[in-house]
């Protein structure tokens, strides 16, 4: 590179660190430019003399540990000529790890002498009960050594008190990344600071150059904290600016108002409803009705506890749109749920949904079900009803998105269980309207406020917290099958007692099973020696021949043909089956008020929100519900603690916070759905709630003054980098 071409954040790494190293960084870590490397932040920081908790390492994990050599031993190899060097390293936690090196390497024995500290990287394996790293990469700290891994320029990286440990690959260990980062920081001028100086001063944020240098080579813990706070702010601010801009643009889109109609279908429906709406349902109904009346598209998130009555709220909104001459579509994640919505709405609407039939009321509409399993003739008839506008309410799965499903006047899209759908699917349904339709997104998974602010910050949010009258409490208990097998025997007896009392039960398994219906290859034991998860097709016959012998048992899972799934679900709903052995296909929406007990087998294999959703299938009638979480997880393990937490509360918001603690936040932020590199990597939705709230306030104020950030071009460019094009599109559509 000539002096006329100073290095910038866009400079290719090949020009800075050499072609071979740059190729490894690109191929293994997707790092191509100086800017990419600047934003490849350390995963953690070690301190010389402090332990890195070797005892917590998992077999199969690719790790980098800071440890001290304790002793070395050389012994001849049994199977071939040569010697084996075994080096025991440890930390202050008392944990030890064996490093094994094959071949005659006397120089390595001299280098790895007791007392030396180093960073050791490799894959954790286990041999005769001892954890080890075979032939690990390493760099020694402090005094120079004889091996090339201890080259002086690499050792220099770790001279400070805080040692950065980077997300790395076997071919590109952390110290190679650190060396390359040093080259970039010493060569490349930091980017222009995108944040307005007044905002930096008000929020006491360090400059971007200082932040980038200190996060890689911290001079103290205090400076590292300030650097991380500034870079987290940039991430939160970029997301909030994107969401606030999106909300502002959406408010300017035209949409057809759908005002309420006195004496219409909605009034008739309210009059025939066999129960009173809860105050929460009425309040949310007023909010939605007002949104539908405006000339701009509603974009509202309706969240509520399992069984809080979201479907009735959505149906009332759909009827308001039908009264105004439009159509409403509800997108459900499974055919089982779509079919159940169809049956439930026909029951609730009665003659209001029988247009063209004897006994229908004046102005009645039709409710059509469109799924992939419809026969050709039934499909043609249903599609004609939809296209000609005779079907005011259309229910279906992703089959609604296919070409050939045309609406006469789509005015409202209701998305049930939002987290089950990809962004593109929701957007495809919206695109079927001439103008942007109103959108109501529903979820029974309570969303922590920080997540709502960060992921759904462009949606107005309504919450149903009350349960309708007649809903019964659900008791939950953990059944420790390994420690107390008698408890599991008692659980099956409890199922028989409930059936004898005229009730029904669910048994939920994590897997379908082997054979033609299997979703996957037969699983083997995992790296920790755990048996495969229990499967529906294996458990059902064991129950029928054993503890539940004589009871009417049905099987339900996602690989059954659609008509068979529907028949099984109908049989269970009609009381023709006593026990339903199922996968999580029953997780959402399934409503059988007579089901009072659920046994979840291998409950530790499910997530917190999944377990909360599942247990919501019982206690939906007047009899109390019981959920038994069966697990072999040891007492005191994190899996067992998670189950104990689920059993201890039915507060979905508390459980959502717990779920957020345990999940990778990248999933929550949509990183796995965007499928591309993102610079959002420091922000913690759980720990940084106050910072996210402050960033939201600043974003609202700035966008009010400068909607397209025309007066802040550097900030606009920074937002485009941090929230890349595909992620912006994700937020835009979501």
TrEMBL record:
Stored Gene3D superfamilies: Nucleic acid-binding proteins (2.40.50.140), P-loop containing nucleotide triphosphate hydrolases (3.40.50.300)
Q: In this protein, which residues make up the domain named Helicase C-terminal?
A: 487-661
**Which molecular function term from Gene Ontology is one that the record holds?**
helicase activity
Sorted alphabetically, which InterPro entries does this protein's record hold?
DEAD/DEAH_box_helicase_dom (IPR011545), Helicase_ATP-bd (IPR014001), Helicase_C-like (IPR001650), NA-bd_OB-fold (IPR012340), P-loop_NTPase (IPR027417), RecG/Mfd (IPR047112), RecG_dom3_C (IPR045562), RecG_wedge (IPR033454)
Q: Which domain of life is it from?
A: Bacteria
Annotated ranges, domain Helicase ATP-binding = 291-464
Q: Name the UniProt key words of this record, in alphabetical order.
A: ATP-binding, DNA damage, DNA repair, DNA-binding, Helicase, Hydrolase, Nucleotide-binding
Region: Disordered; residue ranges are 512-532
The keyword DNA repair belongs to this UniProt entry's keyword annotation: yes
Parts of the chain that traverse the membrane: none
Q: Where along the sequence do coiled-coil regions lie?
A: none
Looking up NCBIfam families in the UniProt record yields: PRK10917.2-1
Q: What is this protein called?
A: Probable DNA 3'-5' helicase RecG
Species this protein is from? Micromonospora humida
Organism lineage reads as: Bacteria, Bacillati, Actinomycetota, Actinomycetes, Micromonosporales
Q: What gene is it encoded by?
A: recG
